[in-house]
Amino acid sequence: MSETPPVPVDLLVRHAWIVTMDAERRIFRDGAIAIKDDRIVALGSSDEVERSVSPREVIEGADRFVVTPGFVNGHVHITGEPITRGSVPDNTDWRTNVFDWLIPTYMAQTPEDEALSATLAALEMLRTGTTCFVEAGTILDLPAVFDALAATGIRGRIGQWVQDRAFAPDDDQAAMTAGAVAKLEDQLSRWPAAGDPLLAGWPCLVGHNTATDTLWREATALARETGCGVTAHMSADPADPDFYLAETGQRPIVHLAALDALGPHLSLTHGIYLDAQEVELLAQSGTTVTHCPMTAMKGAYGASSAGRFPDMVAQGVNIQLGTDGNNNGNASDMMRAMFASAGLFKDALRDADMFPATRVLEMATVNGAKGAQLSHCIGSLEPGKKADFVLHDRNRPEWRPLFNVVNQLVYSADGRGIHSVWVDGQRVVDNYRSTLIDEEKLYAQIEKAGAAVLARAGMEVPSTWPVL
């Protein structure tokens, strides 16, 4: 009886540690992964996979590489903040941060600035192992941002930042709502999610108290009709529940439930100031919550003192991780977010069982894929799924010695050890460098553009110590 001939493949990575994140959470000490076009075609022990494929290219992973799925960043500001990174003073509370610093710099940008900012954000994510992201919302020019991102090779779900609530007496509420809905309809038509393209449009609501009930209903209906998701900020501060209680007599999540806006399509970012009923509604509806631990710590949001994240985990809420915005001092490095998430509630509750490394790695991979509506094609390494994966370089001190690979990923390593990255089967980072972005040119452009944005916004960056 003749043996089955080997299958031709484009790439074979062999003799590497492989953390699959599949349903059994299998880890191979001497594993191999084979890629053809944009898909994983074989994965398992090196001996088994090598016999089944005929590769065009081979990467030897022995004593060198750990392979993981690409990380999924559930909430990141790719415009507005990367271009003015770190300019907000360290001791800035939430309201001052948003209204006195972020909004003025957002509005001082040009479409060219947004394109540069998006490119920088994509580069940082790719270089630190993130292969897919959900955007918080482009401020001004979504087409410019889409074109810039398309040139980087990253996977993402993006949208214009939309709000419609009339706060000023002379605002035309009906016109504002009609305009917001039209924006959503246009971007979902121009960049549909059907067919799992690298980039697709999403309803990106500002959230908080900025969306009317009509906008929430329309965004929800569009998401359900088109198979995309909805993302919005909610309850990062007590101001959100205070507003909803005053205006509707209900807390925010209760009110969204009454609108039929909750569900697996929805990702709510921050979700710190919730009560027990709201947690139960999130769990029952399948709504995702995006935890941004680095922002919470930098901005003193109160996640560790007021946040019900342990309760959410206990009740089965899908919690994913986000890095939020760079003006909170954040890197878009999901590995740093994993470390922060693993430690935050251990210390706050003096309970070492809180958020083990295994759970946190799930938040950055399979949970993120679920929140992005992409569980069927990313988030784990399995035959038939998209070839979105990362090689972590073990020839670094933080990776030696290696005994527990998941602990090492969460507690020891960070994104600086990412050697190579594939998205949709394309190698977009090779030996610590982007294969598609002229990094030196981008850095020079960003330095000039960031200074110009701050100048147009009338901002002077303070320093506690003298800068000579």
From TrEMBL:
InterPro entries associated with the record: Amidohydro-rel (IPR006680), Metal-dep_hydrolase_composite (IPR011059), Metal_Hydrolase (IPR032466), MTA/SAH_deaminase (IPR050287)
Keyword vocabulary terms for this entry: Hydrolase
Keyword Hydrolase carried by entry: yes
SUPFAM superfamilies: Composite domain of metallo-dependent hydrolases (SSF51338), Metallo-dependent hydrolases (SSF51556)
Amidohydrolase-related domain mapped to chain residues: 66-428
Family (UniProt): Belongs to the metallo-dependent hydrolases superfamily. ATZ/TRZ family.
Protein name (record): Amidohydrolase
Taxon lineage: Bacteria, Pseudomonadati, Pseudomonadota, Alphaproteobacteria, Sphingomonadales
